[in-house]
Write a structure and sequence with these properties.
412 residues, mainly alpha, 81% helix, Growth Hormone, Chain: A
C-alpha cells in the first residue's frame, strides 16, 4: 500500500488506530446480525414485530444523522466518532435488561445512533486525511474494516450463542464496542477544515432540503435508499428465510461469506476508481445486488444461498465505499459531514422501511417472494443511476459506464 508511505507519521498512526476502532465497532454490531432475529423470535415476537424492532435501528440512524452531520462539520469529526462508539458500548446491555417489544424498539433505535456516528465521523476523518488524487484508493483501503469486522462478528456471535447463550452474546457485543470507544479517544484529528471557498458559499446559502433537491445529491440519495431496502431486507429476514425453508446452513456463515466477498473486491476497486471514475463501479455494484436477489429468490440449497452471499458482498464492497468517495468528490471539504448525512441518510431510510414493509410482505407471500420484490427495486436503482447520475442523459450514461467524468465533482 504505497499510498500510506506518502503520509507523515502522525497521519499513518491516526489511520491505523482509526482502522482498529472501525474493525472493533463493526465486529460488535455484526455479532447480532444472525442472532438478534432469533432472539426476538425466541421471546415470542411475530414476523411483523421482529421487523419493527430491527427496523427501528434505522430510525435512530436517520434521526441522529442530521444532528451528527452538522456537528462533525462545526465541532469535530472525532467527537462524532466517540458518540457512535459510546452507543455501541452501551446499547447491547439494553437487550439483556428489557423484554417488552416496545422498549426493545427504543433500545434498537438508540443502537442505530452508533452507525450514524461511526460512518459520519470515520468517513469524514478518512476523507480529511486522503490526498485528493488518490482519494478512492485510501478510502477503499480504510473501508476494509467494515467487511473484516462483519466477517468476524457473525462468527463470534454464532459461536458465543451456541456455547454460552444470549447473556454472554450481549456482553461480548458490549465489550467490543467499549474497545472501539477506547481507540476512538486515541485518534488524532487534523484541524485544517476551517475556511470558506466559492463552492462552500454556494451551498451555504441553501437550506439542507434545498441541497437535497439538487440532482448531484438527490439521485445518489435515492439510489442509496433502494440499496438500503435490499440490505435491510437481507439482514433482517435471511436467518428466518433459511429456517423456514429448512436450508442446512448456519446464518452466520452467510454473513461471513458476504463480508469476505465485500473485503476482496474493495482491495482492487478503490485505486481503479481513481482512474476510471466512480460511476462504473457503482453500476457494477447495483448489478451484483440484482444477481444476489435473483439468486436468493430461486435458492433451494446452501450453495445457492452462499452464492447469493458472494453477489451481495460484492455489491456492498462496490457501492458503499464508492458512494462515500462520490460524496467526497462532490462536496466542499468543510461540509462533508452534512453531505455524508444526506447521501447515507438515503440508505438509512431504506433500512427503516425494510423491516416493517417487507415483514408485512413476508407474512402475505413468504420470504422467497420478498426477494423477488427486492430484485425489482434493484432494476429501478440501475435505471435511475444510468440515466440521471449526471447533468444530462449523455453525461449520465458515459459516467455510469466509466466513459466520462463526473460533471458534479469539485476539485479541492
Amino acid at each position: 500500500m504505497k499510498i500510506f508511505r506518502t503520509l507523515d507519521h502522525q497521519q499513518q498512526r491516526s489511520l491505523m488506530i482509526l482502522f482498529l476502532a472501525g474493525l472493533l465497532f463493526w465486529s460488535s454490531i455484526s455479532t447480532l446480525l444472525p442472532t438478534l432475529p432469533l432472539y426476538l423470535d425466541r421471546i415470542g415476537g411475530t414476523t411483523q414485530q421482529i421487523g419493527l424492532v430491527i427496523g427501528c435501528f434505522g430510525v435512530g440512524l436517520l434521526l441522529s444523522r442530521f444532528v451528527l452531520g452538522p456537528l462533525a462539520d462545526n465541532r469535530s469529526r472525532k467527537l462524532v466518532l466517540i458518540v457512535g462508539t459510546t452507543v455501541a458500548a452501551i446499547a447491547p446491555l439494553g437487550y439483556l435488561l428489557l423484554k417488552s417489544f416496545l422498549l426493545l424498539m427504543v433500545v434498537r433505535a438508540f443502537h442505530g445512533i452508533s452507525i450514524a456516528g461511526i460512518t459520519t465521523g470515520y468517513s469524514g476523518l478518512v476523507a480529511d486525511l486522503s490526498p485528493p488524487g488518490r482519494r478512492g484508493e485510501l478510502i477503499g483501503y480504510m473501508s476494509l474494516c467494515t467487511p473484516i469486522g462483519m466477517a468476524i462478528g457473525p462468527a463470534i456471535g454464532g459461536f458465543v450463542l451456541a456455547a454460552t447463550g444470549y447473556v454472554s452474546l450481549f456482553m461480548v457485543c458490549s465489550t467490543l464496542g467499549s474497545l472501539s470507544l477506547l481507540c476512538s479517544f486515541l485518534v488524532w484529528e487534523p484541524h485544517s477544515i476551517v475556511g470558506k471557498n466559492s463552492h462552500s458559499h454556494q451551498f451555504e446559502q441553501q437550506k439542507l432540503w434545498q441541497i437535497l433537491g439538487s440532482r448531484r445529491v438527490l439521485v445518489p440519495t435515492f439510489v442509496m435508499s433502494m440499496v438500503g431496502l435490499v440490505f435491510g431486507t437481507t439482514f433482517t429476514f435471511l436467518p428466518l428465510y433459511i429456517q423456514q425453508n429448512n436450508i442446512p446452513l448456519n446464518a452466520g456463515l452467510f454473513f461471513s461469506v458476504r463480508a469476505i466477498a465485500s473485503f476482496t473486491i474493495r482491495i482492487f476497486t478503490g485505486r481503479a476508481s481513481d482512474r476510471f471514475g466512480r460511476g462504473l463501479f457503482i453500476t457494477g455494484g447495483l448489478v451484483f445486488s440484482l444477481l444476489a436477489m435473483l439468486t436468493l429468490w430461486t435458492a433451494n440449497s446452501s450453495n445457492m444461498v452462499l452464492l447469493g452471499a458472494i453477489f451481495g458482498g460484492s455489491s456492498a464492497g462496490l457501492i458503499l465505499p464508492m458512494m462515500i468517495t462520490l460524496t467526497t468528490d462532490r462536496c466542499p471539504q468543510e461540509q462533508r459531514g452534512k453531505f455524508l448525512s444526506l447521501y447515507i441518510g438515503g440508505f438509512d431510510l431504506g433500512s427503516i422501511m425494510a423491516g416493517p414493509t417487507f415483514g408485512l410482505i413476508a407474512e402475505q407471500v413468504g420470504y422467497r417472494s420478498m426477494f423477488a420484490v427486492d430484485a425489482c427495486l434493484d432494476v429501478i436503482a440501475i435505471a435511475i443511476f444510468i440515466t440521471l447520475s449526471n447533468k444530462d442523459l449523455p453525461h449520465s450514461i458515459r459516467f455510469a459506464f466509466g466513459q466520462g467524468q463526473d460533471t458534479y465533482a469539485i476539485n479541492h
